[in-house]
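Regression report. Comparing outputs from two consecutive submissions.

Submission 1:
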Amino acid sequence: MAKLLVKQVRSKINCPLTQKRGLEALGLRKMGQVVEHDSNPTILGMINKVKHLVSVEEVK
């Protein structure tokens, strides 16, 4: 299974509550924080909700 590195690049201030909770579900609490996740439909759906706040890289 592919791994994804997800980094928060924009602030969650003034975002809807669902997007704030999406970031927390991904494990992102601060700007610049990076987390690693497996690539599965659940994680990809959460990333899609907050794609304007994060950057995603695939790890080989």
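Submission 2:
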Amino acid sequence: MALRKLGKDPESPSGGSPTIYLDEEKDSYLVQGWKVEDSERLGQMDIPGHESVVEIPRRMVQFFLEVKKDDEAPDV
């Protein structure tokens, strides 16, 4: 499995989380973030038992956009 680290939260005080990865083989994202345990928020979602929810700050979306920029780059 070839994971590609897209970026860490530049404002994280510890510098280690959240982090966004791209699994190039499965063509999917993996998100490391804060575990959501707030029952009120979880109650507003339909989460199957085999799934979980993590939270990342909005500023992390820039790393998803980086993949799009890479895909649009001309072949050299």
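Expected: both submissions complete independently.
Actual: both completed, but the second showed a warning that disappeared on reload.
Relevant detail on submission 2: Strands lie at 3-8, 19-23, 28-32, 34-35, 54-55.
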